[in-house]
Amino acid sequence: MQTLNVLVVDDSNVNRLVVSRLIQALGHHVVTAEDGEQALACCEAKLPDLILMDVTMPQMDGLEATRRIRERFNKHWIPIIFLTGKIEQEDMLAGLEAGGDDYLTKPVDIKLLTAKIRVMSRIADMQQRISQDAQRLEAYYLSNEMEQQLAEHVLHNLYGDRSHTGIEQWILPAVQFSGDIITAARSPTDTLHIMLADSTGHGLSAAIACLPAATVFYAMTQKGFGINAIAREINKKLKQHLPVGRFVAATLAAINPQEKTVTVWNGGIPFAAFINEQGRIEKQFQSSNPPLGILRNMDFDASVDVYRWSEPGRLMICSDGLTEAKGAQGDILSLESLCSMLASPHTQPAIAPLREQVIAHLAGHENADDISLVLAPCAASIGPASPATQNAMFTQLSNWELRLDFGPKELREELGMATLLGWLNQIGLSEAQLSDMLLIVTELFNNALDHGVLALDSSEKHSSSGFTSYLMKRAGKLFGLEHGWIQVAMSHVTGEDFPILKLCIQDSGQGFDAAPFLQSDLDDTAPHGRGIALVNRLCRSVRYQENGRCVEVEYVLR
Amino acid sequence: MSVTFHIREQEATIQIHGHFNFSQHGAFRDACKAVLAHQAIKSLEINLMEVDHLDSSALGMLLVLRDQVDERRIPRLLISNAKPVVRQIFAIAKFDKFFEID
User: Fold this and answer.
1) How far is B68 from chain A (nearest CA, A)?
2) Of A403, A388, A394, A421, nearest in space to A500 by CA
3) How far is CA A442 from the centre of its chain?
4) Strands ordered across the beta sheet of A261-267
5) N or C: which end of chain B has fewer CB within 10 A?
6) CA–CA gap between residue A53 and residue A43 (Å, rounded)
7) Rounded distance, CA A230 to CA A413, Å?
8) Which range, A71-85, A154-168, A192-206, A266-280, is most confident?
9) In chain A, what residues touch B57 (CB-CB under 8 Å)?
10) Is domain A160-378 classified as CATH 3.10.20.30?
11) Contact in structure between A264 and A272 (CB atoms under 8 Å)
């Protein structure tokens, strides 16, 4: 047994001496006091591990002293044993009432004293351990609180900014942090990218698993990559960073107002659909891939589903927390009835009634999983453009020329645009210039590929029913491509006032008559050729040569 | 027991009962460990006949098991008797791409 500091309080010298000797004989230290007041003073000087207290004393009696010690040192429990000649039940009760823990009758029996000291010491040990644990718990709680605040701040900053995207979203976490995230950003070509991601489990660990997905999403969207390339990269990152068994189900969508298309890659999200203004599901995008972070990149399938709308509507995506939310009778929400609440013009806010419907369905129960829902208007314009930050700072190089050749293999694997995007992001264009150049390169490269190398008829693309069959035909031809090439050359030359970026794209196709598309009065609603007209508007000059097989444009770097 | 298993010669079966979610994690891991400890095993069947529902953490556990089975070079891992609700979840997560689901 450990050595204890024992305080003996008794007004009788003889008693004090006898009891002290006994305790010293047991191997403990002794401090003595003659009455209650002295006892209190001893406690102030140094808290004892155990107090043996006489009841009847002058000045302040044992009961009063005990009461005061309990009051004064309420943070620490000190075992107090009363020493008394009386063994009346009432006295015992009064002593326990005052805060005493046990009784010993005088004359003190050494065996009984030893046993009681041992018991008290055991309880005191326990008490001390509990209070240490409580302190540790409190410290842990405080540091946890701080960490949570920091995490909340970081996550909020990462996912918080939704300005200029026009989307409406709602997330209802199951615990403090949501394992569901919604990100949205506009690409330089004014396509709106949206991602709804649902990571395994919920809470902070799930939220952390979403971080790499969000950072890749924003970085690549800003650089003009398509959602298929973004999905592939996120998959790679998550596969690298997350342990096996942790993954992120996600839907990535791109809304292109010029083309009136919604492009979706869905890996493990139960519901993503285009809802028209009558509140009907016009097109549902099924999950056709495993969640992100499971497959090795060589097994990853980045193919996307494209839908072209004829009348505006909304894209709605929601996580399984919503599709599986159980009502009071264990029933599941009807998605059709939720969608029917979207029978309104796409410009109107619509998420509030849906949210209320879901909450009413939960009927006061807590949601078992994170619920997330996003609505994005699909129309000819995404909304006000983000304020352009003008910082034209071109690279030090003032005269350079670059050339890239793409053969059948590169074209089959769709490496062309990805390479060009990387390239355009390297040459130090301002945001506005990058946006223009992306548009120009995308239009001209796709023309060269689709209508040059693959010899697809563009009129088919723009008929209302032909779009899907056009895409399928394109995918088929591309898959079987054995011959053909596209050559892209870009050069930077000094102009009169501003430097000029020259771009020349040449293909192995049959060529075409470009003259009609270069007329300035071509109207925006013409069924096809809008791409070339757009390029013509952005560039200082557009020249087709070799019967349309080669196009050369000049863009002024203002 | 929420997770049971039995082994007959070279074939092992793990059966899960009720909701297959994180609360079954310990039991499922123990069952997998016990089954994989048998060197002779040539096939492992996950019988979901008694499973009413599963969530993403269950999918995670199955992925972990798949890795362990690959590591041990056990030729066959089969998921059997899944109810329609459970099948639906596998379909959304496209687990049919890398699990044999019967």
Assistant:
1) 10
2) A394
3) 31
4) A180-186, A192-199, A248-256, A261-267, A305-308
5) N
6) 13
7) 15
8) A266-280
9) 200-201
10) no
11) yes
Torsion sign over Cα A326, A331, A335, A339: negative
First to last CA, chain B: 24
Q: How many CB pairs under 8 A join A and B?
A: 49
Peptide bond into A107 cis (omega under 30): yes
The ipTM estimated for the assembled molecules is 0.72
A203 touches chain B (CB under 8 A): no
Residue type, A350: A
Tell me what pLDDT residue A523 has: 55
- Asked if A174 is an interface residue toward chain B (Cβ–Cβ < 8 A), one would say no
Q: CA of B93, closest CA in chain A: separation in Å?
A: 4
Contact (CB, 8 A) for B40 and B9: yes
Could you tell me the fold of the domain covering A5-131? Answer: Rossmann fold (3.40.50)
- Contact present, A488 and A420 (Cβ < 8 Å): yes
pLDDT tens figures, A459-512? 776 666 677 788 888 888 888 899 999 999 998 888 778 888 999 999 999 888
| Token pair of A79 as six digits | 């075992």
State which amino acid sits at residue A513.
Answer: D
Cα–Cα dist A200/A172, whole Å: 16
Handedness of CA A350, A185, A230, A451 (dihedral sign): positive
Q: Which of B56, B67, B92 comes nearest A244 by C-beta? A: B67
Residue A106 in contact with residue A15, Cβ under 8 Å?
A: yes
- Classify residue A163 by burial, with Cβ atoms within 10 Å: 0-12, 13-18, 19+: exposed
CATH 3.30.565.10 in chain A: give the residue spans.
400-556
CATH H-level, domain B3-101: superfamily: STAS domain (3.30.750.24)
The Cα A128–Cα A134 span in angstroms is: 10
Question: Would you say A517 and A532 are in contact if contact means Cβ atoms under 8 Å apart?
Answer: yes
Buried b (16+ CB within 10 A) or exposed e, A164-201: ebbbbbbbbbbeebbbbbbbbbbbbbbbbbbbbbbbbb
Q: Which of A201, A290, A369 sits opposite B93 (nearest CB)?
A: A290
Tokens of A501: 């970026």
Are B86 and B53 in contact, with CB atoms under 8 Å apart? yes
Check: CB of residue B39 under 8 Å from CB of residue B74. no
> A67: phi > 0 → left, psi -120 to 50 → alpha, else beta; which?
alpha
Chain A residues within an 8 Å CB radius of B61? 245
pLDDT at A520 over 60: no
Task: Evaluate if residue A389 carries a pLDDT over 50.
Answer: no
Give the end-to-end CA distance of chain A in Å, rounded to a whole number: 87
Residues of chain A with CATH 3.40.50.2300: 5-131
State the CATH architecture for A400-556. 2-Layer Sandwich (3.30)
Domain boundaries, chain B: 3-101
Q: Which amino acid is at A16?
A: R
Q: Looking at chain A, which residues constitute the CATH 3.60.40.10 domain(s)?
A: 160-378
> Where in A27-155 does DSSP place strands (E)?
29-33, 50-54, 80-84, 102-105
User: Please, which residues 44-83 of chain B have a Cβ atom closer than 8 Å to chain A?
Assistant: 55-57, 59-61, 63-64, 67
